Amino acid sequence: MRALDTNIIVYHVLKDSVFWKRAAEIIKSVEEGEDVFVPLPVLKETLFELRRHAKGLSEIIDILVSFQ
């Protein structure tokens, strides 16, 4: 089982990096059933990064809800 890193999640959600395509491939493998885990520090870092890019809490919630 692999662990997801903050960068994979952020690159996939924000689509603003040259690494977005690879992040999307990793997320697709998770959607197709690959078992992964997200350590608590990664969740915290992800929320921090999204907060830097979002305009408010409601936008962060929208981003997270759209991330499946």
DSSP strand content: 5-15%
Q: What is the multimeric organization of the chains shown?
A: single chain
Q: Low-confidence parts, pLDDT < 50 over ≥5 residues?
A: none
Please tell me the overall pLDDT.
84
The string of secondary-structure elements, in order, is: EHHEHH
Overall form: globular
Largest sheet: 2 strands, parallel
| Helical run tally | 4
Give the distance, in angstroms, between the N- and C-terminal Cα atoms.
19 Å
As laid out across the biggest beta sheet, the strand order is 1-2
- The Rg value, from CA coordinates, equals 12 Å
Total strand segments: 2
What structural category do the secondary elements indicate? mainly alpha
Helix content: 55-70%
Can you describe what's shown?
With 68 residues, the chain is mainly α. It has four helices and two strands. It has helices at 6-14, 20-31, 40-53, 57-66, and strands at 2-3, 36-37. Strands 1-2 form a two-stranded parallel sheet. α1 (6-14) crosses α2 (20-31) and α1 packs parallel to α3. The longest helix is centred in the C-terminal third of the chain and has 14 residues, at 40-53. It starts with a strand and ends with a helix.
